[in-house]
Amino acid sequence: MSSSVGWVIVNEHGKQMLALVTGGAGFIGSHIVERLLADGNRVRVLDDFSTGNRENLPELEGLEIITGDVGNFESVRKNMEDVDVVFHEAAVASVPRTISDPLGSQKTNYQGTLNALEAARQCGVRRVVFAASAAAYGDDPELPKREDMPPKPLSPYAVDKLASEYACQVYYCLHGLETVSLRYFNVFGPRQDPSSPYSGVISVFADKLINKEQPTIFGDGGQTRDFVYVADVVEANIKAATEKTAPGNTINIASGISVSLNDLLRTMCAICDSEFSPVYVEERQGDIRHSSANIDKAIDVLRWEPAVKLDVGLVSLLQRLGYEP
Ligand SMILES: NC(=O)c1ccc[n+]([C@@H]2O[C@H](COP(=O)([O-])OP(=O)(O)OC[C@H]3O[C@@H](n4cnc5c(N)ncnc54)[C@H](O)[C@@H]3O)[C@@H](O)[C@H]2O)c1
């Protein structure tokens, strides 16, 4: 068994832990990589750079970057050698892309998870932390979402994420591989790509405000979301990788507070000293009206709580994007 001093973990061979971060060049993955390195761990990134970016990753000793596809078992198996912990972030994270290409995206979003689990089992990995999604809940009106509610996936993306959670549980029960699925709600923070209208709404609003353009709101802006800052998501991943009580669980990772898009934009406008004047356009088909999470399980099982309040996270993000208060 390993011992933990902070998060610099020494494995049973007395060596520094090696973490594999799939999708480590992406938004969330790159923050996990940064934290692991800062804590003194060795990190291997496996990424195909389809949406990830080399510039998201630091030039640091202890970081190995491999260009490869999680949909290719041989590649995943080869890069699993000597790994102690896996953070499986790689995915086609765009719901519309999974709708237009369900077969192609499934190779990453479900097959990729199965490849990671099977390679981890074969290589004797201690723990796999999986980036699951609140998309598993679909549009069930019952709020806040609890992990024991029946799932209702409404897209190939959600189906693949849910199937991946089940695969994690199966590997835990059948093979004793320690797995933890974290159902992220709406994550925001630096390095989130604003180029797609479907990417995080905060990154899209921030991009518009920085460029002095009017943000667009689909529908009346009364729809709500539960936003969680990326540093809190990183901390949840570290807890999921280290807490004894975590394995075998699926856990919501969110702030537990829901905010309407109108209120969100008002707060961002106030920070940027901009006028609140969004352009309202027709509601998007398939958009969920309200979303909020119950985070009791994260508090109990992971001993994790979000530390960054929405307005504080927004100021930090806008400053990182070049906004001068
Ligand atoms: N951002 C959110 O709010 C959110 C919410 C719920 C779940 N998630 C999940 O969190 C994870 C990270 O999301 P993100 O927002 O950082 O997205 P992202 O697109 O920035 O990161 C995904 C990374 O995976 C890589 N990748 C894609 N296909 C790959 C493949 N076949 N092989 C290897 N690498 C591949 C991409 O190049 C990218 O670096 C994803 O699994 C996503 O589904 C994100």
Q: What features would you describe in this structure?
A:
This protein has 11 helices and 15 strands. With 325 residues, it is an alpha/beta fold. The protein has a domain at 3-187 and 230-254 and 292-307: NAD(P)-binding Rossmann-like Domain (Rossmann fold), CATH 3.40.50.720. The protein has a 7-stranded parallel β-sheet with strand order 5-4-3-6-7-8-13, sandwiched between helices. Strands 1-2 form a two-stranded antiparallel sheet. A two-stranded parallel sheet has the order 9-12.
Mean pLDDT equals 94
Helix share of residues? 25-40%
Bound molecule types: nicotinamide-adenine-dinucleotide
> What is the CATH superfamily classification of the domain at 3-187 and 230-254 and 292-307?
NAD(P)-binding Rossmann-like Domain
| Structure annotation, total helices | 11
CATH architecture of the domain at 3-187 and 230-254 and 292-307: 3-Layer(aba) Sandwich
Structural class: alpha/beta
- Note the beta-strand portion: 15-25%
Name the shape in a single word: globular
Can you write the helix and strand succession as a string?
EEEHEEHEHHHEHEEHEEEHEEHEHH
Query: What is the third-level CATH name, the topology of the domain at 3-187 and 230-254 and 292-307?
Result: Rossmann fold
CATH C-level of the domain at 3-187 and 230-254 and 292-307: Alpha Beta
